[in-house]
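[job 4471] stage=fold_predict status=RUNNING
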Amino acid sequence: MSLVDRLTTDMKQAMKARAKERLSVIRMIRTSLQNESIKLGKPLSDDESLAILSRELKQRKDSLQEFKNAGRQDLVDEVTNEIAIVQSYMPEQLSEEKVASIIDETISEVGATGKTDIGRVMKAVMPKVKGRADGSLVNKIVRSKLT
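[job 4471] inference complete, writing structure tokens
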């Protein structure tokens, strides 16, 4: 089942259950997917859908941090719930150990030796872990291994 089909089914269930917050988040995700599809002029592939979902998740995480800094607990709770809903549509996240092993393989493939190769390693690793690992985690591990 594609992401759009799953979102449509879940949206109907949320409407029937009168789950306003879940329904709102699903509608926002569907709107983002639809807008991107219109912008590209074609239906989205699974990778493109995953990229949009990752972007939505990142936006919410950024908002969460800002609300924490501002001391707005009411908004922190709301965004935390939204993050949980968005994450339910993401593929299973890789463990830190698995990400580290993928990075080790990539470092040997690329032949990286030091800090100057961080960009090359990141460029090669990100497609392998797309949507299954946070970019900041990948960056942190790559930097620790190449310094």
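[job 4471] summary: The chain has two domains: 3-87, 96-146.
[job 4471] exit 0
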